[in-house]
Amino acid sequence: MIETGSPPRDLWLEAGRRGLLGLAVPLVYGGSEAEDWRFSAVLMEELAAVSAAIPSFLSIHFDVVAPYLIELTTDEQRERWLPRFCTGDLVTAIAMTESSGGSDLARIRTSAVRDGTDWILNGSKTFITNGGSADLVVVAARTNRTSGSKGITLFGVEAGMPGFSRGRNLDKVGQREADTAEIFFDDVRVPELNVIGQVDRGFQHMMRMLPQERLGAAVTSLAHARPILDLTLAYAKERRAFGTPIGAMQYNKFQLAELATMLDVSQSFVDACIDVHCAGVLSPADAAKAKWWCADVQNRVIDRCVQLHGGYGYMNEYRVARAWTDARVSKIWAGSNEIMKEIIGRDLGL
Ligand SMILES: Cc1cc2nc3c(=O)[nH]c(=O)nc-3n(C[C@H](O)[C@H](O)[C@H](O)COP(=O)(O)OP(=O)(O)OC[C@H]3O[C@@H](n4cnc5c(N)ncnc54)[C@H](O)[C@@H]3O)c2cc1C
After folding, report:
1. In angstroms, what is the span from residue 201 Cα to ligand 1's centroid?
2. How far is it, in rounded angstroms, from Cα 333 to Cα 47?
3. What is the CATH number of domain 9-91?
């Protein structure tokens, strides 16, 4: 996958066969109708313990896009999309970010103009996970030029619609297994049947869904860092310098103690957020706290693990090196750390 920069369709189909893709989807559409979000959280943890990229591209589908297709769609859309969503025959993506800026979602420029019962979509999106391979992309487009955040609508753009095209697979420094692409809309005719949620309410729909995406990012950040700390502990017990294991040197012992503390203390907050989310009352500010903090902890832990590996920590054949490049994006995507602090600041009345 690293060489091709894109997960093969067989992987999606196998994930579908194993019931991983439709956890939140109602049974009637082929999903598992899981009792609550903890099932998704456990799946993300297990995947992140193996690799950072795999939960990224899978969870965009089963955890990020899923609520849009379950909660905002019509019966006809659910019947059309969800069964294949669960089997992996319909891979999905969500496209908010544009080249002119991703943080300020209210200013997106991709436009959709009504034409009879259809909408004509023009514009482009960038950095879209699964963008090169998705069969269905949830696209945020401006439908009302004068209404700012109140003039955005979500559309289901399907592969094969004339005028919908994809750019190259973007050359990332980490998570090279994931397909991240630009996508383009050139007079794409989207039928009214593919409007997702309410016209002009797309921004509000996204704001409602983003806390779950951010909590998922926090879960993944910690689950990705923990095995890297574990393997670094093993390394520090074996690797010797000056006739003694490096982990026995007080400086390194204290470093490792700090990393273990950071992960455990952060996990408590994330677990509390998961309970609150399952009760349906996770606030945007708490999701933002979990997301930026855990992204920071993940990067601090893994960076120090690289250091403890010495020169080997800089070699791609060592898992810790790959983890280091894979982790960096956590502080940028799904709302950067700075944007998370903006949200928290506003919640503090600032
Ligand atoms: C690998 C990868 C996968 C991604 N997948 C997706 C996807 O599937 N779908 C999707 O829609 N997007 C996706 N993104 C895009 C991602 O969400 C954006 O990159 C992110 O929101 C930041 O937007 P930007 O890159 O345009 O940076 P900008 O918005 O241009 O920000 C640049 C810098 O300015 C800072 N900044 C901006 N505003 C403020 C402020 N008010 N105060 C302080 N600092 C500020 C930012 O924090 C950042 O450091 C992905 C990105 C990457 C790298």
Report:
1. 22
2. 18
3. 1.10.540.10
